[in-house]
Amino acid sequence: MVYLIVSASNYHIPENHKTYKIDSPADSVVINDNEVLNKNTLNGYVKSAYPNGNIKDEGFYINNIRNGWWREFSETGVIICYGKFSNNLRTGYWKYFYGNGNICDEGYYENGKKEGWWRKYDDSGNLIALGNYIQDNKEGYWQYYYSNGVIKSDGEFYHNKKVDWWKEYNEEGLLESEGHYMLGLRNGFWIHYLYQKKESEGLYVDGARAGTWKYFDESEELVQIYNY
Predict the structure, then answer these.
(1) Among 43, 62, 76, 164, which residue has the fewest nearby CB atoms (within 10 Å)?
(2) What is the rounded distance in angstroms from the CA atom of residue 202 to the CA atom of residue 180?
């Protein structure tokens, strides 16, 4: 792999520079903190390198602006993500990866912001979250999963915060609790279950139990009333 740089007699080259190569030696440039140090215009295929020589990222420029497909890599050479840019903004389908090469996230961008349905995976490749983004914010219905595929929780988001009614399950898929969220915190009425039997019910205020709570035995008979 060959990396080309401009002449040091004509341009200052930082000690820890990143080198970029495009289609011809005349177009080669040196980049430091994304600042172009000569007057050439970047057009076409461009790639950057880490100090160890491994590719950092690669893709296409049009008049110094990222346009088209891009890929980014870790310093050890493992792919981090790939997708498309339009006028320097992420657009369309993007895919992200863990250090072990397994998929981490996938979904769509519009004007540099997450838009539409996204999926998130654990580092073994198991789906752990699925839901909708609008303008980079989690909005609407989301589902979370355990690594065994069983649903962990589901409910609504508004501007990245849990709202309205949510249900939470154990790894066997049994309902453990359900209740109301407001701005990301439990607020309002909640019911907790033990082995599918109602174990307690009462109100939350800003994430903490408040007021009168009722507790039940395994037959769902009331056994205690406690005031918080």
Answers:
(1) 76
(2) 11
* 163 token code pair: 């709202």
pTM: 0.79
> Measured between alpha carbons, how far is 184 from 159 in angstroms, rounded to an integer?
10
Per-residue pLDDT of 28-82, as tens digits, reads: 344 433 444 344 688 889 999 999 989 999 999 998 999 999 999 999 999 999 9
How far out from the chain centre does Cα 205 lie? 29
Round the CA-based radius of gyration of the chain to a whole number and report it: 26
Residue 43 dihedral angles phi and psi, to the nearest 5°: -140, 135
Question: 98 vs 50, 83, 104, 121, 145, CA distance in Å?
Answer: 19, 16, 6, 9, 18
